[in-house]
Each structure stands twice: as C-alpha cells, then as structure tokens.
Design brief:
Blueprint: H1 3-25, H2 33-36, E1 43-44, E2 52-53, E3 60-65, H3 66-71, H4 77-81, E4 87-91, E5 97-101, E6 113-117, E7 120-121, E8 141-148, H5 152-155, E9 162-168, E10 174-180, E11 184-194, E12 200-211, E13 239-250, E14 253-264, E15 283-297, E16 302-323, E17 337-358, E18 361-383, E19 390-397, E20 407-419, E21 424-435, E22 439-451, E23 456-467, H6 471-475, E24 485-498, E25 501-513, E26 516-519, E27 523-526, E28 530-543, E29 547-558, E30 569-580, E31 583-592, E32 609-618, E33 627-634, E34 640-643, E35 654-658, E36 661-668
Parallel strand pairs: 6-9
Antiparallel strand pairs: 1-2, 3-8, 4-5, 6-7, 8-9, 10-11, 10-36, 11-12, 12-13, 13-14, 14-15, 15-16, 16-17, 17-18, 18-19, 18-20, 20-21, 21-22, 22-23, 23-24, 24-25, 25-28, 26-27, 28-29, 29-30, 30-31, 31-32, 32-33, 33-36, 34-35
Length: about 675
Amino acid sequence: MNPGTRITVSITLLTLLSGTCARAQDSSEQDELNQLLNLLEQQTTLATKTRLNADFVPGMLSVFNAEQLQRRGFRTVWEALASLPGVTTSMDETGMRSISVRGIGELFEPSKIKLLLNGVAVNASAGATTGSLYDTPVEQVERIEFIRGPGSAIHGEFAYAGVLNVITRKRGERYSAGLDSDEGVSFTALYSYEKPGSNFKSSFSLAANATDGQDIDSGRDRTTGGDPSYASGPINNKRDFVSAIVDLNFGDLNALLQFQQSNRGDHFGANNLLPPDDKQTVISDELVSATLSKPFSLGDSLAGEWSFSGMQNSSEKNELFLGVAEAFGGLGNEDDIYADSDLVEQRLEAKVNLEYEASAHKFFTELSIADISIDESEQFINLDPVTTLPSPSFNEFDGPVNDSQDRSSISLVLQDEYRIDERLTLTTGLRYDDYEDIGSNLSPRIALVWRQSERHIFKTQLARSFRPPSLIETGGSIESSIDPEINDTLEFGYIYHQPELVLRNTLYFTRLDDLIVFIDPLGYENSDSFELLGYELEVEKSIANRWNLVGGLSLQDYVDDELPGSAPWMLKLGTEFRMLPLTSLHLQVNAVSSRERAEGDSRSDFEQTSQADFSLRRQSFLDVDGLDLRLGIHNLLDERLKHPAPADSYPGDYPYSDGAMFWAQIIYQP
C-alpha cells in the first residue's frame, strides 16, 4: 500500500471512529442555543479579533489554561506546545528554540509563526522571530492560545503557519521556587494591587531561571579529515532567563510594560564547529515593549480601541566562537577566532480598530502603521580584514544586517461575520499590507462555521498567509529581490463535544510557494512549491472522574515532492490519574516519525523519536492551603534525544538530552 493510500485509509477510519463515538454517546436531541454558548468556558479574540467561544472560531484553536499547564507537568511554553498535534520543537546550532507546524519550517528558516505576548506582536523584522518567548515559564502564564494554519487575514506578516499568543497572569498573588538535577534554579512572583475607591488596578509579574544544562557530548562536528576541532566534547548549553511584566489600568486606559531576556551558551557553535568547554552564556536575546491602549464607544453599535506601542528587539553575542586558529592560518589556541556582534531593532506602531454590529452582520476593521529601524548593527572579529589571518585585536566587519535596511508598513484589515441564521456563520476577511521596501500583499480568508447542535460543529476555511523576507534574508539574497512566502490552505473541521468527550478533527490541503531557503555559501533564494495533505485529531476524554486523557494524532502526505524535515505521523498522548483528591500523576508521551533529509543530504532519514515525561502534583502540600508541590522527570526513558542538523554539519545531529532530568517546584498562592 503506497503512502497516499495509507493516509487516506487512516483518515477515513479515524473519521468513522469519531463519528461512531459521537453517535453512540449522542442520545440527547436538545440543541438550544444557550447550550451551544456553554461548550467552552473560555473565549478568545485571537482568530477573528471579535470575542468568540474558542470552538466557534474559523480554523482549529488549541487553548491551555493555567490549571491545565500545572496539572500536565509542563515547565515552559516550549514544552507545552510540543504536546500539540502537528507541532514539533526544534533547535538550531546555537541553541535558538523554535517550533514548526505541519512540517513547515523544520529544515528551512524556522521562524514561520506569529508570536504574541499579551496580544503584542514580538517578532523581530531582522530575523522574523524572538529568542525569549518560548522560554516563558508556565508559572507566569494564565493562558496559551495557538492556531495551526494561516493567520495573516487578521495578524498579517509572519502568521504563515500559525499564531501563538502567550497571556500572562495579572490578578492575584502567587510565588514559586524550583530546582532541577542540571543545577537549575527558578523563581516566579506575582503581585497585584487595586486601590480602594478608585479605578486603578496594577500587577507585577517576575520570573527568573538558570541552568548549567546536562553534560551532553556533541559527537563529531563538521570538520573532516585532519582539520583541527574541539569535537567531540561537551556542548555549551548553559541558559538563563528573566521576565518582568507590569500591567497598569487607569479605568479603561491600559499601560503594559514587558521585558524578557534569554541568555544561552553557543551550544554546537555558530559555524557548526564545537566551541571550547567554558560553560558561559555568550548569546543574549532581549525584548522590551511598552503599549498604551484604550477602548472607546461611538454609540450602541459602534465601538473600537486605539493603541500605541514601542518595542526593541536586540541580540548580542560576546566572544562567539567561529573556529580554531589553525583553520584560519593561526598557530595555537590563543589565536582562536571569536566575534562580538550587536543587533538592535526598534519598532513603533499605531493601531485603531472599529467593530460595528448591524442586523446579522458584525463588521471589524483595523488600520495599523508601523515603522521599523535598525539602530545598531555591528560585528567585530579578531581577523585581519585584508589577509583574513588571526589578529591580536578585534577589527570591524559587516554587521548582521545593513543598518540602512529600515522598513515601514501600513496595513488595513476588513472582516465581516455574517450570521446566516442562529447556527450558521460566514466569515469573510481581507488584509492589505503595503511595505516601503518589498511592495504590497493581500491576505484573504473565507470561512463557514455550522453549529449543527450543542454537540456537533462543522467548519471549513480557505485562507492565504504570507511571510515577508526578513531583513537578514533581503540583505543576503542571491537574487536582486526575494518574494514573500505564500501559504494557501483549505481546511475542513468537525468538533464533537459532550461533557466527558471532545473530538476535534481537521483535514487540510496546503500549497506552499516561494519558500525562502539558504544556499550555502551563496545566500538566500526562493525555492520550489510544495503541496501537503494532512489530518489532525485532538481527543479529550474523562473516565470515572479519575482519569483524563488528552491526545493528538497527525498524519501528513505530499502530492509530489516531500517537504524536507516534515513528519508523516505524530502521536501525542497525555494521561492524568487522580490518585487522591489532592494528588495527581501525569505522563506525557510525544512520538514523532522518522523524517526525510533535505535534498543533497546523504545521511539516512532522521530517526523516529519518542520522549516521555512524568510529573506529580500535590495540592495543599503539608496541609497548607494554597501550597502546591510539583515533581517531575524529564526524559523518563533515559533516551538520547536529538534535533535534526543540516547537511554538512553534525553527522549525528544535535542531541539536547542525554538522560533523565529530575525537577521539583513549590508554589504558594495566599
């Protein structure tokens, strides 16, 4: 049986199984609208910018609330996302964390997700991502919302393969402290204040952690023959993270201040040459943002919100190892080659949106103006710029991007939610983005949601998304210009919902055009097109009030050429057992199939990976109300876990765990 037949048969069987379960348990014919509105307690504005029940939005939206994150034993946003169907986590040679969705971004440039922190877009235009958001600890998080698939009709640039919104805690009081067997420590604190007799509210959220990382041997790096190298040896995987978020409300006026800094060692080396073992952080990614916003009303049917925001993304590298001295004509280790690099980008943005309800229509429009400037881009290397031989002093070289590569844009969103009847909603939308340097782009969407009953929801959506070339890509292009990447996706969804069972099915057809790839050593260019067919199933099942199962299955096939790095199947399963009323156990297993290498990579397929994580949660620990204990074992099966490495780099890929890691955490909420 060929792969196409296998995936078609599997989709058919799984869909029939879902329908059988639904029919077996759907003994009630009640379908009142008020029951429909209570399918989920949570609501979201992520998919349409108008508040809707999370299961009623176009496309498939996954939500983690704070309680779920705690129960399931996740420690960071990155770990939580790894449990979703269609999502794989990845890491590059310097330890930069990212995710890919439906295989998009696995072996190409991985920054294909729109990243939001409390609704504020934090993607840097220089590199299309940010180095800190995935490291956010779950103790600081109130909610994670994630859309798989195109999101540009609302969110514009970078919402190519998905949209992630991390919403932090802003109410109450909460403290935590933890440690792990990799000499790691962590701390979070939340304090909120409301002034009596006034409309002033505030909250202060802090988080910090640090770890020396596991002792992991790199294996052989990209050096060949008798070329000198520090491999094989221990990788420099030291990390630390700091986050501070201040939320101030003066009635309807909101001021939001956000700071995140993630520091790390250079892991496998910037040039895929293993650095010396000195266990220090050499790469720092920093995000600073300030947003002022206020809703307003212009009548009973017309309301809106304005906002002004400023953001600075900066990346600093200090003594980043580039290669051993002998490879550059030097004599000894004292002449090893290092680089100091600074890249600072600032973004100013003004937005105003309007929402108008008339009869069966809900209209939404948003106008935004953004200006991005490179404030600093410099690089210093201890090489002679003329002879390229090791130099006793650092000399200036071209920075990561040209500091004249500023970018400004103006964007307009138009959307109409048309309630054809009480159960059928048609959503049409169009976003127009006009860039000063790369031209304009249109992102359309049309979606239909049919709430057939309180238990059955059917969806379909056709949408286009885009990712503009980053400033690094435009500055290093092979051709005179690079076109934006385009994603056209048609989705069909079915949700079955009842108190003890939820099934979310998605069938999608995707065409990817003009993917941006790096051709070593020439630069960036657009690649060929790819067409994907896939199926995703999410299951939530409660059994006898003691067991909770949360699972995900992904299947994917290709029309012609296979997308390098994408997985034909993924299986994610979380099992929770309430051992005692205040004590629960959780086991999370993530299995990802083997994956094909990129064209020209002579290695065999990247092998199948399976990771198991175990955790225990005890509430009212030591009989103290509000005191919780969390314990866990990361990589329970003691496996050597790896992320795929590009061709001509590390032949054995990038190991990120070489055995079990134990952790513990105390949380106190007065």
